[in-house]
Design a protein that fits this description.
The chain is mainly beta. It has strands at 2-6, 9-12, 14-17, 21-22, 29-32, 38-41, 52-57, 64-67, 73-76, 79-81, 83-86, 91-96, 101-106. The chain has no helices and 13 strands.
């Protein structure tokens, strides 16, 4: 959801989460600030073709276990996974191909 478009580029709503969470189709930029590792669930990739999520751990946060839904796959530099870990001060951008796969398009290897 673009909040505004100005000469500096688009602006997005930013959500900060502090506990286990299921990402919504309306989420774009999600920061996590966990005191211990928590699970964050992706929505169905098939139901969200072209959807992009930008996820980042805040400074001092514990890690985020980003999990697929159903038989979806999450593909990063390690190949197909059921889940990926995002650590504090690291970011991942994911995009859905619309046919059951979430691809990490940035933040690979972090």
């Amino acid at each position: 959801v673009i909040v505004e478009n100005n000469s500096a580029g688009p602006s997005y709503n930013v959500k900060t989460i502090t506990d286990t969470y299921s990402l919504l189709a309306t989420d774009v930029v999600v920061l996590f600030d966990f005191s211990s590792q928590k699970n964050v669930d992706l929505p169905s990739a098939s139901d969200n073709p072209g959807k992009v999520f930008i996820l980042r751990g805040k400074d001092g946060s514990d890690s985020c276990n980003l999990r697929r839904t159903g038989s979806d796959k999450v593909v990063d530099d390690g190949g197909e996974e059921n889940s990926i870990i995002i650590n504090a001060n690291k970011a991942r951008t994911l995009v859905s191909d619309g046919s059951g796969v979430w691809y990490c398009v940035t933040g690979i290897g972090s």
